[in-house]
Write a structure and sequence with these properties.
Length: 404
């Protein structure tokens, strides 16, 4: 009997995890990645406990942890005063998850290790360079057209997943609205080899520095060489040009405001991102589904976007598996949007907007109130546990299970 074939457009981390879950369920899968190489620009690294459980389900957890850094704590700082406000400890969740910590592993490593694992499945095909251009549907399947170095080709599958990022061609081809807004400022990401744990005494691998003038997220990643490096994320000024934001003056003065080093920071990478809060009106049309950034985008404060995308991938493949194996009818497909869209709005959009506001609060009284609230949360074991269940998206997974 012919195997069910699932075509996935987009070989980012969400497409790769979805492809692996398809292959492990016994489906034939074709993964189309538009670029010749996996994008290794600095984007996601923070991977929360609930998502680590999913990475374990696709068999990558040991490698994922070994290529990253385990971050048990995260902290909030008052940046102008250079004072730590509060620290949260994921070990509070030790009775809730086998992974009571965050792992900081760069997203391109997840994509690469997933692609390597996919190659061990006879019916999994990874194609780098063909770019999906359109999708059409039939009674029993869907067809993707793709342009590659050898011209245009047509691929037919039973189902299609658009995991092709925020500017998703598949979402546009399905004419699905991407509702929400774009922030006026952009985010500047600077990577430095200088060690902030030596500079900012008492900081940990994940630090959120509140500042009414210019907040900073400061976190450590392992780097491809495993030697460690720090990423500092800043908002740009609205009127600042790309050249100004990426220039030396901006780079070094921004890092100096985090800690005055007295010499030039050893900066190895600079990048600028537009920042949006948008959610697709639906995550499915017929036999075509959206997952990851093609379905939702958000600001990166709190590190939730990719986590939510992996949650989509796992929910979607479980749903497809139930329908394909006739444990449920096609009406179950609507539950995918119902669950994942609702949970993205409630847990990812709301939290990331609040996280950003917390860091940039300008009103001194409101700023103090936010610090007091965080301290009160950390000091009360029950409140801290509830807070971490939410930030780690464990509460989101539990809510999904209760949603019909
Ligand atoms: C600075 C920054 C920091 C972040 N930090 C975090 C974090 O710590 N934790 C977190 O959870 N999230 C974080 N995010 C968000 C995270 O990077 C994204 O949510 C994540 O990349 C989404 O993965 P994806 O696979 O859906 O999309 P992408 O990573 O965008 O991958 C999409 C892939 O599809 C390919 N593609 C595009 N069009 C086509 C096409 N037509 N045909 C075939 N292939 C196509 C692209 O080449 C790309 O490889 C951060 C984002 C930024 C900008």
């Amino acid at each position: 009997m012919k195997k069910t074939r699932i075509i996935i457009a987009g070989g980012g981390p969400v497409g790769v995890v979805a492809a692996l879950a398809c292959a492990q369920n016994g489906y034939a899968v074709t993964l189309l990645e538009a670029e010749a190489e996996i994008d290794d620009n600095p984007r996601a690294a923070t991977t929360h406990p609930s998502t680590l459980e999913m990475i374990a389900r696709v068999g990558l957890i040991e490698q994922f942890i070994s290529e990253g850094l385990v971050a048990r704590y995260f902290q909030f700082w008052d940046k102008p005063a250079r004072v730590k406000v509060v620290e949260f400890d994921h070990d509070t969740l030790r009775d809730e998850t086998p992974y009571p910590f965050v792992v900081q592993t760069e997203q391109h490593k997840l994509a690469r290790m997933g692609i390597e694992r996919l190659k061990t499945f006879a019916d999994a095909e990874v194609r780098c360079s063909p770019r999906a251009t359109t999708v059409s549907q039939h009674a029993d399947g869907a067809t993707v057209s793709a342009d590659g170095p050898d011209g245009t080709e047509t691929l037919r599958g039973n189902y299609v997943i658009g995991a092709d990022g925020g500017r998703s061609t598949i979402r546009k081809a399905l004419d699905i609205d991407f509702e929400g807004f774009t922030w006026p400022e952009r985010f500047l990401v600077l990577t430095t080899l200088d060690d902030f744990q030596e500079l900012l005494a008492g900081c940990c691998y994940r630090n959120y520095l509140a500042d009414p003038d210019e907040w900073t997220n400061l976190f450590k990643v392992a780097g491809d060489d495993g030697k460690g490096r720090w990423r500092a994320v800043f908002p740009t000024r609205v009127e600042e040009s790309d050249d100004q934001a990426l220039g030396d003056e901006s780079t070094y003065s921004r890092l100096e405001r985090v800690f005055p080093l007295g010499r030039r920071y050893n900066v190895v990478h600079r990048n600028l991102y537009k920042v949006h809060q948008r959610v697709a009106a639906t995550f499915r049309k017929g036999r075509v589904f959206l997952a990851g950034d093609s379905a939702h985008v958000n600001n990166s404060v709190g590190g939730l976007g990719l986590n939510g995308g992996i949650h989509d991938a796992m929910e979607l493949i479980d749903t497809l598996h139930q329908v394909i194996t006739k444990q449920a009818g096609e009406e179950l497909f609507d539950r995918y949007t119902r669950r994942r869209r609702t949970l993205n709005v409630e847990f990812v959009q709301e939290q990331t907007i609040l996280n950003k506001k917390r860091l940039e609060e300008r009103d001194p009284k409101a700023r103090q109130a936010r610090f007091d609230e965080l301290r009160a949360t950390a000091e009360d074991p029950i409140k801290q546990r509830e807070f971490l269940l939410r930030t780690s998206l464990i509460a989101s997974v539990r809510k999904a299970q209760s949603m019909a």
